[in-house]
Amino acid sequence: MLALSFLGLFAQDKGVKEIVISTSAQCGMCKDRIEKELAFAKGVRYANLDLETKDVTVRFREGKTTAEEIRKTISKIGYDADEVLADPVAYEKLPACCKKGGHDQDHSQGSSH
Ligand SMILES: [Cu+2]
Fold first, then answer.
1. Could you read off the pLDDT of 49-99 as tens digits, one per residue?
2. How far is the CA of 70 from the centre of ligand 1 (A)?
3. pTM of the model
């Protein structure tokens, strides 16, 4: 019993974990969208996306959620999250400027202007 409550005290300090996930965010709208969705995700305490690196820093309560759950949440918004690819349906709903390579997509395959 004593040991358990002792561990419980420890868990309060150590329960919050910080991870950095690389995403396919393109612009400020993407940043807002991802940060807002993550803010409401279970167990998430903090989310901040850096548009320079497209990395999102997330702090979450261990035991409430996992890094894997957070990657899935980002995928469901329509963005890649590390090795988890964007959900195709959600991705289709994104504005054109928010899609991958929104600015430099054209020269990949014989585009017709
Ligand atoms: Cu965007």
1. 999 999 999 999 999 999 999 999 999 999 999 999 999 999 999 999 999
2. 19
3. 0.78
Cα(6) to centroid(ligand 1), Å = 46
At residue 23, does pLDDT exceed 80? yes
- The CATH number of the structural domain formed by 15-94 is 3.30.70.100
* Cα 30 to middle of ligand 1, angstroms: 4
Under 8 Å CB-to-CB from 64, ≥6 apart: which residues?
42, 43
Distance 103 CA to ligand 1 centre (A): 11
Q: Where are the domains of the chain?
A: 15-94
Cβ 92 vs Cβ 44: under 8 Å: no
67-77 and 28-40 helices cross at what angle (nearest 10)? 130
